[in-house]
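Tutorial handout. Part one gives the primary structure; part two gives the three-dimensional structure as tokens.
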Amino acid sequence: MRGLRLLAAVSVTAAMAGCASAKAATPAAPAPSTSSAASTAAGPSASARMVCDTEIQTAVETILAATPAPTTTATWTDHLYTCTYHLGSSTLVLSVKESPDAPSANAYLAALKHQLGSTTPLTGSEGLGNPGFQNAAGHVVVLKDDKTLHVDATGLPATSGASKLSRADVAYEVTTDILGCWTGK
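Part two.
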């Protein structure tokens, strides 16, 4: 798993080159449904919506060797933008919690860590310089500025894609693809 992580971290540089060109040509993410009046007014930030944009959809499709391409649904509730990738009977869930400030973001990160149980901290290079953690079940959580990214691959088969990646490896690889392009603001 560590070898794959090093490879993923190194490949982020190549992915970042594609981020700038994809941003100009990428249409907006699907319009999220909303469930509260306060959330409707503000809506998710561009960086939160990125988890459902074309460049990440393409990355997910490539990582999972998904045929047909996954479909997505997006929601925005209580400052949590959630993009669910539907892959037949399986799902991959990417979410971004937008906190009002760093202390709130750190509290949300700590709450997720407690909720997920046994976790392992990401090293500086694994989190691309951002604090975060992972678990063997297939969760990776990373904090960047006031946003908490949660990649949940627990709805996938035990192994996925041409390389037969574990849920944990899929979650990590998707996370590094997002962080490679994510401005955070």
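Part three, for discussion. Confidence is low (pLDDT under 50) at residues 1-17, 20-40. The radius of gyration is 15 Å.
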